[in-house]
Amino acid sequence: MMNVYLDDFRPCPEGFVLAKNAEECILLLGSEDVDILSLDFDLGWGQPTGLAVVQYLVESGRYPKQVYLHTSSPSGKMQMYHMLYRNAPQTVRIHNGPMP
């Protein structure tokens, strides 16, 4: 199992694999079992956001065990949280904020 940290700017925490964009993150989620996924929303001008990753989770059904939303975008965090809350299995722990 791996832990994935999606962010185009912040440094990657120890014990995580860094995905710098939504496409990299989706490739990791599609090919590996993920324990913890930590999502940023804004990933660069004109680039797909963290919401694209959440949409992939919903459409594929490939959920990690835990999802953290470390983004500084209040509206982006709300969009991702609500989509996850409505669609994720009850076994998935959704944290509406960054990792402690």
State the strand order across the main sheet: 2-1-3-4-5
User: Architecture, according to CATH?
Assistant: 3-Layer(aba) Sandwich
Put simply, the count of helices is: 3
**In the CATH scheme, what's the topology name?**
Rossmann fold
Unreliable segments of 5+ consecutive residues: none
Rg, please?
A: 12 Å
**Fraction of residues in helix:** 25-40%
What is the CATH domain class?
Answer: Alpha Beta
Structural domain tally: 1
Strand content: 15-25%
Please state the structural category. alpha/beta
Number of strands: 5
Instruction: Give the SSE string.
Output: EEHEHEHE
Largest β-sheet summary: 5 strands, parallel
Oligomer: single chain
Overall form:
globular
Alpha-carbon distance between the termini?
Answer: 20 Å
Overall pLDDT: 98
Q: Can you describe this structure?
A:
This is Cyclic-phosphate processing Receiver domain-containing protein. InterPro entries: cREC_REC. It comes from Paenibacillus phyllosphaerae. Pfam families: cREC_REC. This protein is α/β, with parallel strands linked by helices and 100 residues long. It has one domain: Rossmann fold (3-Layer(aba) Sandwich). It contains 3 helices and 5 strands, in the order ββαβαβαβ. Strands 2-1-3-4-5 form a 5-stranded parallel β-sheet. Helix 2 links the parallel strand 3 and strand 4. Helix 1 packs parallel to helix 2 and helix 2 runs parallel beside helix 3. The chain is globular, with a radius of gyration of 12 Å. The chain starts with a strand and ends in a 5-residue tail after the last strand.
